[in-house]
Every structure is written in C-alpha cells, then in structure tokens.
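Reminder to self: tokens first, then the designed residues, so the page reads top to bottom the way the pipeline ran.
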C-alpha cells in the first residue's frame, strides 16, 4: 500500500503539469493498475501520455453520457 501511495504522488506530479484540473481523478484511475504496470509508465513518457489520453477519453465519454438531456 505504501508503494502505491508513493507511485501515486509521482504520477500525480507528472500529470498535473498537463491536466491540472483532472490530475487527481486521472491519477486515481491509473492507480487501479498493477504496480509493475505503473512503474513501466513512469519509465516511458510515451506510455504515460497514452494512458493519460486514454483516461481523458473515458472521462469525456462519461461526461457526455452523464450530462442532463
């Protein structure tokens, strides 16, 4: 659990520069992944950017379907 928290802090700091308003939510989404996968994301900027883009798409899709009609 302690490792997950440390990973979360590092991941948050990477995300907040590009997605300041959604960094907490995206970090939470990514933290559901396995620790080894998270470590891989931290080693590859491209992989991290792809996962963040994926999470953003999920959030946008959710917001679109959750919006009042």
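Designed residues (69 positions):
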């Amino acid at each position: 659990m302690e490792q997950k928290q440390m990973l979360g802090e590092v991941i948050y700091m990477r995300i907040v520069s590009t997605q300041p308003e959604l960094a907490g939510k995206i970090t939470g989404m990514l933290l559901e992944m396995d620790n080894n996968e998270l470590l891989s994301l931290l080693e590859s900027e491209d992989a991290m950017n792809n996962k963040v883009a994926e999470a953003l798409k999920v959030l946008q899709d959710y917001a679109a379907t959750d919006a009042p009609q």
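DSSP finds four helices and no strands in the chain.
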